[in-house]
Amino acid sequence: VQLQASGGGLVQAGESLRLSCKVVGTPFIVTTIIWERQAPGKRRQWVATIHSGGDTSYADSVRGRFTASRDNAKNTVYLQMNSLKSEDTAVYYCNVIDGLSNEYWGQGTQVTVSS
Predict the structure, then answer these.
(1) What is the pLDDT of residues 49-66, one digit of tens each?
(2) pLDDT of 73 strictly over 90
(3) Is-contact 86 114, C-beta < 8 A?
(4) Checking DSSP bridges between strand 32-38 and strand 90-97, what pairing results, if any?
(5) Sign of the CA dihedral running 14, 17, 18, 20
(6) Is the pLDDT of residue 106 over 90?
(7) Which end of the chain is more exposed for a tag (fewer CB within 10 A), N or C?
């Protein structure tokens, strides 16, 4: 199983970014995708989860600003991030839980929000 988060970059506070995570090597339609982030010097933090049926859940710190979605035809999940704040600066990771409850981690993508 391979997965790669992409779409990060440098933006100003208040702007938006959309991250993507493409998953290959496992039946995507039955996967649960977890978005996490890790800021410098801090522990990895859960951001959002999107289940196979499309149900989503979010950390309090991003609820109302971030939206997770999935395109099963493209084996891809997205994290739309609006109204970005400096405290959203982190490396963002997508993790996948497959149909057998195995978990895989991918490389992250850097998001930097300047104030």
Answers:
(1) 999 999 999 999 999 999
(2) yes
(3) yes
(4) antiparallel
(5) negative
(6) no
(7) C
